[in-house]
């Protein structure tokens, strides 16, 4: 009886093996490498001193934080509106919207970079059109800057955030809307006083996912800028695939810094989420 009770746990063994080989062991290896000099030797903090004292790596941290925050904030705002519309949509229109979301959510990486080059690159379709009709606000947009990269990131953040937020809207009951209307409140009152506070834990959780997604994104930015912009993923990749020598220790230190930033953001959003949940219970 006891054997049959625990037989289903055997199904977890392949997943545990994969997690051990492709997550835990590489993670521990990177952490250990970050405390070793590139030429070999004993424990050292030199790699971390290099990260926080070199202007290039300081810029990488600042630029990554800036782009991740901007894309996550704009992505979550637009996704919230889209998820609300998808939740309220019915019939074929709602199904069509979900189909588009699922398709666009998988459109990222190098294909997305090439698409933006064709549309908004220096000689892109939209730029040529803006030049002919005199749309200066489009002509002044530069895709190959940190703001341009943030704009691209917002594009692939929106469908992901929308898909993550749609299920949470099922927790907003129609009875609450009716009660708010009976008490004299309008839609704006309901969403500011009831709807958004109820959804805030899901919104914060989705925000942390978007932040981590943008912080670690590599293929899109590298296809657009290669090494012409200093971001953490680009600098980490450069340490491991250097043209002359690799700097595994420095790459490990940069990776650990990136992981610490991710964990810190997740911790902050979880803390805020718990406070909102406690406020709802009161």
Write the layout of secondary structure elements.
Elements: H1 2-6, H2 13-34, H3 46-53, H4 55-88, H5 91-105, H6 110-120, H7 125-133, H8 136-139, H9 146-165, H10 174-182, H11 187-216, H12 219-225, H13 232-240, H14 248-281
Explain what this protein looks like in three dimensions.
- With 282 residues, this protein is mainly α.
- It has helices at residues 2-6, 13-34, 46-53, 55-88, 91-105, 110-120, 125-133, 136-139, 146-165, 174-182, 187-216, 219-225, 232-240, 248-281.
- The model has no long low-confidence stretch (mean pLDDT 85).
How is the main sheet built? none
Number of strands: 0
- The secondary structure category is mainly alpha
- What does the oligomeric state look like here? single chain
- The termini sit apart by 45 Å
Gyration radius, rounded: 23 Å
**What is the count of helical runs?**
14
State the order of secondary-structure elements, H for helix, E for strand: HHHHHHHHHHHHHH
Mean pLDDT: 85
**Poorly predicted runs of 5 or more residues:** none
Q: How much of the polypeptide forms β-strand, as a percent range?
A: under 5%
Shape descriptor reads globular
Bin the helical content: over 70%
